[in-house]
Amino acid sequence: MVIDKNKYREGVMVRTLNDLIPSSYAPLIAFSQNKNVHDKESLEGYIKYYQNIIKYHPHMAEAHGLLGFCYYHSGQYEEAIEMYQTAISLNKHFFWFSYNLGIVYLKIGQYEKAKDSFQQALLKKPEHALLFIKESKMIYLPILKAMVSQSDFSIPKQLKLGYQECQKILLITKKAINSSRRIPESLLNQIQLKVY
Q1: 0.90 cut: is pTM over it?
Q2: Residue 117 and residue 121: Cα distance in Å, rounded?
Q3: Rounded CA gap, 49 and 55, in Å?
């Protein structure tokens, strides 16, 4: 009996990912919506899942982005930065990767890098973000379905709000740089990464 190594590897990949697929995306959504989630342990399963997606699909930018999201919320900021940088290198046109990277930089006090990330985000065309999200059936579609079922969620509306928020955060960041003052922690805690 001859075993096709490629089919065997593909079977292992499918079984591994199916075993790790989250039963619910509610914790990720709660983190994204700043609902005072303190259960960082719930992120461990997501981290393992996205690490495995990257293992089998290293060029899937959205998996890198969501792993960065999980790392950020588990306090692993350097790992989050690395994942968002990789996501950006794989998809230079996606607004949310640059936006989220800017927020990570803000959180660790690297305001110049945050400013650069927000400026880069605002240069991205919204239609590229819409198309990328809609084409991401494995990663974003299950999360978005869960978000839609919870509220009157709309991708275009969220994207418009994201650009507006990015402009405001950029202004706050520039003021902090110009005045050599830190952004108050209370304000930083109101600014959250987005799950997409």
Answers
A1: no
A2: 6
A3: 10
Cβ atoms within 10 Å of 36's Cβ, excluding its own: 8
Computed over every residue of the chain, the mean pLDDT equals 86
Q: What CATH code is assigned to 40-188?
A: 1.25.40.10
What is the DSSP-derived secondary structure letter of residue 35? -
Which of 195, 119, 189, 182 is closest to 150 using CA atoms? 195
Nearest to 191 by CA among 70, 34, 28: 34
What residue segments make up the domains of the chain, in order of their start?
A: 40-188
pLDDT digit string (tens) for 20-50? 677 677 777 877 776 556 567 778 989 999 9
Res. 12: pLDDT tops 60? no
